[in-house]
């Protein structure tokens, strides 16, 4: 058992002519443990994180994003030396690191992101078998967060089909718990002996992957392929990261009361240190996605999606040229948006009906009454998970 105390201070986001935006916060966290671990007698751990991010959008088709982290803690999880870390390949957290540094270009249906960025695949939340470009920081297991990877991602959206290709030239591993701390499982008979952590052997090749997804009427499914390395290590005389290939798929379908998500992946490897297995997950969300289809000008149909599952820490994604249909907003805001849209459509129908009636008259001055334009009814809930998820 343990308890957690968090104190955070958020900064507002100023906007200068809709070109430069920034955000940041300072967070102090304290973890308390009622019992000592065999290899760790510390029962109170404190940490400090200061984060600043900026997004520069000089034109509608391009955006630059950058962010830095400044860390300190009381339990030797942060490096003692001062340096600017970009790779995120160390066993400890860097004191000063570049969280993200990327450029996004959007032209028509094509979006290209290059640099250090967050890449998310799959639809489930806790365990995501197909999410291979998303290493995590597991130094403190109860408060792990995503690590960005450096690479290029291209996304093309053609109506209901989305094609994504990713290339990462340099491998980024997940941080694992330190052997001299409580989250590392050490045999009781050797826990009191001095423990020396051997540096991990990191592979030097590149990683690549492709993903195709389809959005239908009330459902969405995707298929993906990954060729690279497992970001979680295998213990075999040290920490090694074996090469793997992943063939996976995911599906999501909302119902009246909840949303069903399923995801599965088959893993194979050319290394004897890695196993061949299938990993699958089935998840049910209580609050489904709310969606309505309205008839726009010119007779075309447009679907407005609102995701009511927003959480208080959806702070990892910037705005910008993303192929994202879903907007994460609280449920009260969803109701206000639906009511405002209904009032706007009623006003538009009245204006159109009145203008036509004024022009439709007989030679004797009498006017024919034309029926008002009927509004299209709502359709069952629909959704879309294109683009990034909250981090």
Describe this structure in words.
The radius of gyration is 26 Å and the shape is globular. It has one helix at residues 331-359, and strands at residues 3-11, 15-16, 20-32, 44-59, 62-73, 84-85, 96-107, 110-117, 136-137, 145-146, 149-158, 161-168, 207-215, 220-229, 234-235, 239-240, 243-254, 259-268, 277-285, 290-295, 301-306. The protein has a single domain (3-359), classed as Porin. It has a 15-stranded mixed beta sheet that branches. A two-stranded antiparallel ribbon has the order 9-10. The protein has a two-stranded antiparallel ribbon with strand order 15-16. With 391 residues, the chain is mainly β. Residues 290-332 and 351-390 have low confidence and may be disordered. The longest helix is centred in the last third of the chain and has 29 residues, at 331-359. It is 7% helix and 41% strand.
Brief synopsis:
The chain is mostly beta strands. The chain has one domain (3-359): Porin (Beta Barrel). It has one helix spanning 331-359; strands at residues 3-11, 15-16, 20-32, 44-59, 62-73, 84-85, 96-107, 110-117, 136-137, 145-146, 149-158, 161-168, 207-215, 220-229, 234-235, 239-240, 243-254, 259-268, 277-285, 290-295, 301-306.
């Amino acid at each position: 058992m343990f308890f957690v105390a968090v104190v955070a201070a958020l900064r507002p986001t100023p906007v200068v002519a809709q070109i430069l935006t920034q955000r940041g916060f300072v967070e102090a966290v304290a973890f308390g443990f009622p019992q000592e671990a065999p290899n760790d007698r510390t029962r109170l751990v404190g940490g400090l994180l200061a984060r600043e991010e900026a997004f520069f959008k000089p034109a509608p088709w391009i955006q630059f994003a950058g962010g830095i982290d400044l860390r300190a803690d009381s339990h030797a999880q942060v490096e003692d030396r001062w340096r600017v870390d970009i790779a995120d390949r160390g066993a400890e957290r860097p004191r000063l690191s570049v969280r993200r540094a990327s450029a996004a270009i959007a032209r028509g249906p094509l979006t290209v992101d290059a640099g250090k960025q967050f890449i998310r695949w799959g639809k489930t939340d806790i365990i995501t078998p197909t999410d291979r470009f998303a290493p995590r920081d597991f130094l403190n297991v109860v408060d792990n967060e995503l690590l960005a990877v450096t690479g290029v991602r291209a996304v093309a959206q053609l109506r209901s089909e989305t094609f994504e290709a990713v290339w990462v030239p340099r491998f980024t591993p997940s941080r694992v718990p330190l052997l001299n701390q409580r989250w590392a499982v050490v045999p009781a008979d050797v826990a009191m002996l001095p423990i020396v952590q051997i540096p991990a052997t990191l592979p030097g090749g590149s990683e690549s992957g492709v993903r195709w997804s389809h959005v239908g009427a009330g459902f969405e499914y995707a298929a993906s392929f990954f060729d690279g390395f497992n970001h979680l290590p295998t213990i075999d005389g040290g920490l090694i990261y074996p090469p793997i290939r992943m063939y996976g798929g995911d599906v999501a379908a909302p119902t009246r009361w909840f949303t069903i998500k399923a995801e599965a992946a088959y893993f194979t490897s050319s290394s004897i240190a890695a196993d061949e297995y299938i990993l699958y997950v089935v998840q049910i969300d209580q609050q489904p996605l709310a969606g309505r289809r309205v008839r726009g000008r010119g007779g075309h149909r447009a679907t407005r999606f609102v995701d009511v599952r927003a959480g208080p820490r959806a702070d990892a994604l910037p705005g910008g040229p993303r192929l994202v249909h879903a907007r994460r907003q609280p449920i009260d805001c969803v109701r206000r948006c639906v009511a405002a849209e209904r009032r706007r459509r009623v006003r538009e129908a009245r204006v159109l009906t009145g203008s036509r009636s004024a022009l439709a008259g007989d030679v004797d001055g009498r006017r024919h009454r034309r029926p008002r334009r009927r509004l299209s009814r709502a359709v069952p809930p629909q959704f879309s998970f294109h683009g990034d998820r909250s981090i």
